[in-house]
Amino acid sequence: SELIRGFLLSGMPCPSSCPPGLLALMAPGLALMATFSLPSQAGDRRALPVEKPPGVKGRTLILLDVNTKSPVRIISENFLSLQLDPSIIHDGWLDFLRILSFIKLGRGWVGPSLTQCLPKRRECLAISLFSFPFAVDIVRSDIALDKQKGCKIAQHPDIMLELQREKAAQMHLVLLKEQFSNTYSNLTLTARSLDKLYNFADCSGLHLIFALNALRRNPNNSWNSSNALSLLKYSASKKYNISWELGNEPNNYRTLIGRSVNGSQLGKDYTQLRSLLQLIRTYSRAHLYGPNIGRPRKNVVAFLEGFMKVAGGAVDAVTWQHYYIDGRVAKVTDFLKTRLLDTLSDQIRKIQKVVNTYTPGKKIWLEGVGMTSSGGMNNLSDSYAAGFLWLNTLGLLASQGIDVVVRHSFLDHGHNHLVDQNFNPLPDYWLSLLYKRLIGPKVLAIHVAGLQRKPRPGRVIRDKLRIYAHCTSYHNHNYVRGSITLYIINLHRSRKKIKLAGTLRDKIVHQYLLQPYGKDGLHSKSVQLNGQPLAMVDDGTLPELKPRPLRAGRTLVIPPLTMSFYVVKNVNALACRYR
């Protein structure tokens, strides 16, 4: 939870009912991806004068400026959110969520001061427990944790944790077998389990979004809501502040239950759920999200169109999922391919086209994103290399106006998680924590100029240096309002030099350079910040994320195959002075 609260520090104010079905940690952020193709940039595209400093080859020097007058996008302050996998019930980790390490990790998303996030600034954590591939039931329990007051930290002996890790490893093999054979066992969620989940979210300063089971069907294929109604009534009796969803990847139901559910039918099911919520006073104004479809291929786009025709007005945001590559066949070089990094842009446009056709202006969430599918691969999807895809995903989504992204997963049975089973933060956790601490919700346009080799005729040149710009988070009290944060991905195998120009010229810069730590290189599960290894100080304390100050006017030198953040101080940017 401390890790989660750290993320919440830069999170957005969450209404009394946040979007359903997600316990998501969201960070306010503005991001714009820049390539060296000037016509592709948003905002003012005036070319910058290019001067060759003595001793520097022109083609290696990049001049960078940012439009500081107005943002090109404003996204949710809960932009970066978090998801928990249903496997935590199967493999037993649910019972360990309330230990100090998890609470501290969760609070990392929130930030150092809980008074800033609770109750007005509560982040959202997405926990999809009633979702594909499990059919989940809610069962009352006489030993439910009734009327729990405050944040209760559980204590578990080391021997219990070791036994749990062994159990989780065995269950991981069972879940993989079910996945590959496409035959899944049912999962029962008790009232006590729900109490534990809610306590974890509440203790971490997160808002719970809960995905109800959509696989329960009547003979006419309509949704059987009797089980969901029992859960809603129980949650209301405990006065749990929850948002809701219905199902997960409904376009895949044929492979699960032998019958398909089309978009129009799911739209009717959502309309039915909205009516149920309005009948229960506690949830009459609760947020509802969906349909949480898979990648927008042709048949999935048609599914979304059918859903939007019927239920576009019933949901508070439209959701979909994206996983880049099959984790069973992934290689480290896959995470460096610019073509792979760019696949998300086309999917965003497809989703936006459908949503804007039926409900112009409706918010869109990428609710469920991972670098690899099929549980990921050890030493790849949980390594430093996966961060290139993850950071680029955040930049692309923000620059194209996606309101919230929900990362799968905080902890699960595979290798896409942010925290391992020894409660150690993995590289993507540290990357996300820096993002939440430094990035605000206003996206700024970037202007880039420099001398480059002329592209060969007929050859597509995809840029390996990606630059995004944001107003610095208002909640980071180390920087005055009007400061700007850049974050840069260098996929080149050589260093790159960037000279700040225009409004950024001759300003003091704070560098946050993330590099792999140890002999494993890109496969490393540990990272260093400005040369110092990052690790928890103890079970309850995150380390201080110290920047490296650079003198005013200094050229930024970006090492090969790295990710970095740069806070340009005291710019007094008009776009960033006010919330």
TrEMBL record:
One of its GO terms (biological process) is extracellular matrix organization. One of its GO terms (cellular component) is extracellular matrix. Pfam families: Glyco_hydro_79n. One of its GO terms (molecular function) is hydrolase activity, acting on glycosyl bonds. It comes from the Eukaryota. PANTHER family: HEPARANASE, INACTIVE HEPARANASE-2. Belongs to the glycosyl hydrolase 79 family. This is HPSE2 protein. The gene is Hpse2.
